[in-house]
Amino acid sequence: MTDRTDNFATMMKQALAGDQRAYGDLLQETTRLLRPFLAKRLNNTNEVDDLMQEILISIHKARHTYDGNRPYKPWVFAIARFRLQDHFRVHYADQLHHAADLSEMEDYLHEDVTETSISYESISGEVEKLPKKQATILRMMHQEGYTAKEVAEKIGMNESAVKVAAHRAYKILRQKLER
Amino acid sequence: MGNLDELINKLAKDGTAVKPAHHPFLLSLEWITIAVFYLALALMISGLRTDLTAKLHEPWFAAEIAVLVGIVIATSLSAALLSFPDLHQMRRVALVPAITFVLFALVMFIAWRADSPPTPPPMHSIECTLSITMLALLPAVWIFFVMRRYASTHQYWAGGIAMLAAFSVGALWLRLHEQTDSIMHVIEWHYLPMVIVGLLGMWLGKLVLKW
To answer: Which residue from B123, B110, B138, B132 is spatially nearest to B176, judged by alpha carbons?
Structure first.
């Protein structure tokens, strides 16, 4: 690992001195070094290649800021991170630009599903129109808060009969309110 | 992959010998030296405050000037480091301005407490801010011009610190020139605008230091 790190620094020193072959090798090695770093953060190979090109150009532009007397990797990763952030910034800004505003979507959306024409008053009215026993059961269960068992005790029926009566009442109410 | 190989070959062919950039310590020393000459020239033209010798014997005034000089040095050093993509691998040194600013706030707070009864403020107000800005303009342009030749990966911070470095030269000049003892005036019209200038510098950094 140390050998390889020293190698990068040596190659860069040679490149700064005008050794084009060493520079080419350095860029090849740098590509190999950075590929896993980018692949981990980007979705597809094309994106990785595009960004790699940008990073290589940035390394070329900034090579005078490296003197060969300090580790190469932190220098090159600083540039790679910087370009990656730039890439994300542009990418997300682009996505935001193309994202439709919610207010624009409202016209195309269906009617509000939470809004309904059924009111508490209309339900109460329909309950009153039910057979007397069913109306009493529903009123006791939903207005006065009794359980099916308590209703059964109060009106002298068994619990399952109360539940069946309530179920039939719900069915009638649903049919009436859906009309 | 083919494109990448092509690009590498093209860059390698273009890879002529390049002189490595100065070490950031040397770069900041260069800036500080220029700032000292600039400050001396400005003071020669505008004149020193007449009570400067007596004022320098006052501990809080001397401390204020000393920390202000510290800010000039620290911000110059930090701006030089921020010009390099990896901060020349001296990240902690780049944070030195934070310490000097805390120290400065502390000195100003104590000086404000010691200013009792408070010295009446001078008749002028924003003129001070404008004078500092005018004087800081040239150093600011110079620092940005030099920084553009490097490759900052922290453009916001680099811009902000560069502006603070330039503005602190202006603030130091006015403190040595203007005969004002009102701490409140100095805080309000000399030093608080520094915060705005720093923010402006951050915006400028993103704009000017693009590469």
So the answer is: B132
pLDDT digits (tens, 9 = 90+) for B96-130: 999 999 999 999 999 999 888 888 888 888 999 99
- State the pTM of this model: 0.75
* Nearest to B70, CA basis, from B106, B40, B120: B106
The rounded distance, in Å, linking the Cα atoms of B9 and B5 is: 6
Q: Which residue has the higher pLDDT, A1 or B41?
A: B41
The amino acid that residue A23 corresponds to is: Y
Q: Give me the pLDDT at residue A109, please.
A: 56
List, as ranges, residues 12-71 from A with C-beta within 8 Å of B.
Answer: 15-21, 23-24, 27-28, 31, 49, 52-53, 56-58, 60-68, 70-71
Assign domain A120-178 to its CATH architecture: Orthogonal Bundle (1.10)
**What CATH number matches the domain at A2-98, 1.10.1740.10, 1.10.540.10, 1.20.120.430, 3.40.50.12280?**
1.10.1740.10
Contact A20, A68 (CB under 8 A): no
Local structure of residue B123 (DSSP, 8 states): S
Beta strands in chain B (DSSP E): none
Burial A8-45 (b: 16+ CB within 10 A, else e): bbebbbbbbeebbebbbbbbbbbbebbeebbeeebeee
